[in-house]
Fold this protein.
Amino acid sequence: MTNKTDKEFLKISDMVAKLGVTRTQFWKMRKAGEVPPPVIKNPQMWLATKVMEFYENRASRE
């Protein structure tokens, strides 16, 4: 059984709000590899669970 967060997609505005950055800062972070690549290219959207995994993996390496 899947729960709602398994299929929650985040738009750019959601990512900016969650990270607490401006859109310009977000794109700089994206280019630097500090943000995971989107799972949907047009419009760009991120799967919430993949974003969480990305940051959990980064935290465990630091």
Q: What stands out?
A: The longest strand covers residues 44-47. The beta strands are 9-10, 40-41, 44-47. Residues 29 and 35 are 6 Å apart (CA to CA).
